[in-house]
Amino acid sequence: MLEEEIATIHDEKYRKMLTKIVSDYHDKLKLAKATNSGKHHPPEERGEGGLLVHIRRMVRIATDDGSITKHFGLSDNEHDILVVAIILHDIGKVVGEPHQEESCRIFAKYIADFRIPRVDRQRIDSMILRHMGSWNNAPRVPETKLEILLSALDYIDSREFVHVEEKEANYRRYINKSLSCIKKIFQYKI
Predict the structure, then answer these.
(1) How many whole angstroms separate alpha carbon 21 and alpha carbon 166?
(2) How far apart are CA 19 and CA 187, in angstroms?
(3) Distance CA 35, CA 33 (A)
């Protein structure tokens, strides 16, 4: 589960940590919807397993050729932090609300075992806590490049009007449209 997405990460400690988290929450993730409210998200993300579809799409947009990480010139560490935050940003939905705080609590349970540097932990926590702030009146708004990118990726993939088949040609168009939207929507902040 999420093996391909985790494999895009350069740093072994993050790959091992995410593999452990996904393994520990495997049963709940298989059942989790991308939305608890029934609002937003395309139909395939609203049912069982929808959260996994949402995460996979976000990672793919961020990491495919011509992607976010390339366009915005992210370092390997920034790329890894973005992918970690994508995978963890909604995982708290499997335990409760507010899901941002629950996602950070889940992450916190693993940081010592995998020796996550304090600065990376703070960046990931901040990204998770702020990922909804730019578009739903949340109390925390994204400020840094990585926070804005996570928020933009989440926003674009969670829109009901975004519906693509998993065919490569359609997916490539989806990724290109997503990148174009992110450039336009968040250009003034990045």
Answers:
(1) 26
(2) 33
(3) 5
**Contact in structure between 170 and 59 (CB atoms under 8 Å):** no
Question: Does the pTM of the predicted model rise above 0.90?
Answer: no
Contact 182, 155 (CB under 8 A): no
Domain boundaries, the chain: 3-186
Rounded to whole angstroms, the Cα distance separating 8 from 70 reads 13
- Rounded to whole angstroms, how far apart are CA atoms 65 and 38? 32
- For residues 161 and 41, give the distance between their C-alpha atoms in angstroms, rounded to a whole number: 8
Tokens of 15: 């790959």
Judge whether 157 and 57 are in contact, CB under 8 Å.
Answer: yes
**In terms of Cα–Cα distance, which of 159, 153, 158, 149 is closest to 178?**
153
pLDDT in tens, 57-100: 888 888 876 567 777 888 999 999 999 999 998 898 888 777 77
Tens-place pLDDT, residues 1-35: 889 999 999 999 999 999 999 999 998 878 766 56
Cα–Cα distance measured from residue 101 to residue 124, given in angstroms and rounded to the nearest whole number: 12
Would you call the peptide bond into 42 cis, given omega within 30 degrees of 0 as the criterion?
no
